[in-house]
Structures are given as C-alpha cells and as structure tokens.
C-alpha cells in the first residue's frame, strides 16, 4: 500500500492511496483536516527499520536527515493539537509576526531559531522584543524560547 499527501492550492490536500500501483481511494481534505490525519498516521504507523535505513542512506549522500524519522515524537510537538503552547501547559506568551519580529518577551530570554530540519540557525539572549533579521530566508521555522516564567516552541513562516 502506498499513501501520498499532496497540497493543492492553499486550502486543500489530496490524499491518494494506491495498492499494487492501482489507485484505490482519493480523498480531498482541508489543510486542517489533513494535518490532523497525518498526525494520526504518524501515531498509528511507527517508524520502521526500512525508513531508518533510508534516512541513513539519504544522509550518507546528501548530509541531511528527516527529523521526523529520527524523532517521531516531534510530530505532535510541532503539528499536534498542542503545538505552539508553552511546556508548562499555559498558552504561549511569545509569538512571531509576519515580519519575523518576536513579541512577548519579558525579562531575560534565550531564543533558539531552528529550520524545520532541526538545524540551529541562531541562538540569542535577549531582554525585550526583537527582530530575527531581514536576511531570514522564506520558509517554515521553529523558535524555541526559554524565560524564567516558562518555555515553549513557536512554529512560524517567513
């Protein structure tokens, strides 16, 4: 069985299931439904040794890895229902606007900016709201923040 998810435009995702190269089912989901479905699939279908072997082979050639194979628990942290919520189970107090400006910093704070692959882009110690920089390439990022009153991870796009 082969499953494939593909984004169509911005609001819909088509999921096609094939068995023996013959299309069996074709579903159309909104982005929110598809995110929930893919998180559920991650839970129902744990990483196999074949996927680990493929991830290692890709790394040997390209020097990059699929972080969700190495850390399947990250799926819920990033895409699950509690994504962008502080680790102390309170609503996130730090957020990033469309201009890559960080808001909600109170007191001493360590910010760690990561690409979605898990590669650290920057680490900064700040005491107030700040810009992440205009040189930040377009894409999806994670911002891990740690203050005296809590910590969390915020997902954002640039």
Please state the average pLDDT score: 78
How many whole angstroms does the radius of gyration measure? Answer: 18 Å
Structural class: alpha+beta
Oligomer category: single chain
Unreliable runs: 85-91
Within the largest sheet, what's the order of strands?
7-6-9-10
The portion of residues forming beta strands comes to 35-45%
Report the total helices: 4
Q: Helicity level, as a percent range? A: 10-25%
Taking the alpha carbons of the first and last residues, their distance comes to 36 Å
Q: Please state the overall shape, judged from the principal axes of the Cα atoms.
A: elongated
Q: Using DSSP, what is the number of strands?
A: 10
List the helices and strands in order. EEEHHHHEEEEEEE
Q: Main sheet, how many strands, which sense, barrel?
A: 4 strands, antiparallel
Number of discrete domains: 2
Give a written overview of the molecule.
- This protein is of the alpha+beta class and 158 residues long.
- It has two domains: 2-79, no CATH class; 95-157, Immunoglobulin-like (Sandwich).
- Helix content is 24%, strand content 39%.
- The chain has four helices and ten strands, in the order E-E-E-H-H-H-H-E-E-E-E-E-E-E.
- The protein has helices at residues 31-44, 49-62, 67-70, 74-79; strands at residues 2-8, 12-19, 22-30, 95-96, 101-103, 109-115, 120-126, 130-131, 140-147, 150-157.
- The strands form three sheets. It has a four-stranded antiparallel β-sheet, with no helix packed on it.
- Strand 6 and strand 7 form a beta hairpin.
- The radius of gyration is 18 Å and the shape is elongated.
